[in-house]
Write a structure and sequence with these properties.
Length: 311
């Protein structure tokens, strides 16, 4: 007869599993914050990390513009009109004798402030409308859905042009108008994700515990849809930059002599026909590189679908 295993003696496989579990916990503690960085690095890839570096340079340029810019972006000289790139003027000078590199550095501020206003206002409105529709449902959901359908009927640029025609051309007016146009696209995606969370068992459990709907939405549902929110903001930031640059190009956004990338492309158009390409080309490259980096990072983090917007 074989000796029966007593309850005091744990099975051999259980001891092995416990050892593996302890080793896994120790490994996670040793890795610490590096694990999150490694996951991010694998998700972005080499090109994604390069794009993140480009965006970091743009942001740092915006912050330290007074230190980086070698000349005053508003002051020019008739004698220095249309100078080619040189050690004194890296990107040459424009039709007013102003240093193009200094204007691009300072123009990064206005070129980033406008899209920031757009994505923040649009995200706040979209999250509020989407979560309200998901939680209350029924007639509230149908009413908010009709509002979003109405906004879908108006192109973003048309809303911006109408707002500028009524309130006058300015960066703030164009940004708020574009934010209204961006809202239904983001709200549609957030609502679909939040609706799935709303139907999960943990929400019903929280309701049975007497937790209010507002706290459930803010503490539980909202954190579970933050990935879609942030990814959509990243991709829509690039779209907003393109739209605002187009409005500035048309003279409906930032007004001269304020340095702005879109406005610089417009101001350099006449000089471009005369063979002075520096202003339009360098400002256009700044827009293209920044938008491309934003778009790639956003797609790698969450995919185009998270933005809720197609082009």
């Amino acid at each position: 007869m074989t000796r029966r295993q007593t309850s005091m003696e744990p099975p051999a496989n259980t001891v092995g599993q416990d050892t593996v579990s302890v080793q896994a916990v120790r490994r996670q503690r040793l890795e610490g914050p590096l694990s999150a960085w490694n996951r991010m690095r694998r998700r972005l890839g080499t090109l994604g990390l390069v794009c993140v570096g480009v965006l970091a340079i743009v942001v740092l340029t915006t912050i330290f513009a007074p230190i980086i810019a070698p000349y005053d972006p508003y002051v020019g000289s008739v004698v220095d009109r249309h100078l080619p790139p040189s050690p004194e003027h890296w990107f040459g000078t424009d039709q007013s004798g102003r240093d193009i590199f200094s204007r691009i550095v300072w123009g990064a501020r206005t070129s980033l402030i406008g899209p920031t206003i757009v994505v923040l206002v649009a995200a706040a409105a979209a999250v509020t409308l989407a979560l309200t529709a998901v939680w209350f449902g029924g007639r509230v959901d149908a009413f908010i859905g009709r509002i979003l359908d109405i906004l879908f009927a108006f192109p973003n640029m048309l809303l911006a042009i109408l707002a500028v025609a009524i309130f006058g051309p300015s960066l703030l007016t164009a940004s708020i108008a574009l934010a209204i146009g961006f809202t239904p696209y983001s709200a549609r995606v957030i609502r679909s994700v939040a609706l799935r969370e709303r139907n999960l068992p943990y929400v019903s459990s929280a309701q049975l515990q007497g937790i209010s709907g507002f706290l459930i939405t803010v503490r539980h549902i909202l954190p579970n849809v933050r990935t879609q929110i942030f990814t959509g903001m990243t991709i829509n930031f690039g779209y907003a930059m393109i739209d605002l640059a187009a409005l500035s190009f048309l003279g409906l956004g930032v007004q001269p002599p304020t340095p702005d990338w879109g406005l610089m492309v417009s101001n350099g158009q006449a000089s471009l026909m005369q063979g002075y390409w520096e202003q339009s080309v360098f400002a256009g490259l700044a827009i293209v590189i920044t938008v491309a980096a934003l778009g790639y990072v956003g797609e790698q983090l969450g995919g185009r679908r998270a933005a809720g917007r197609t082009r």
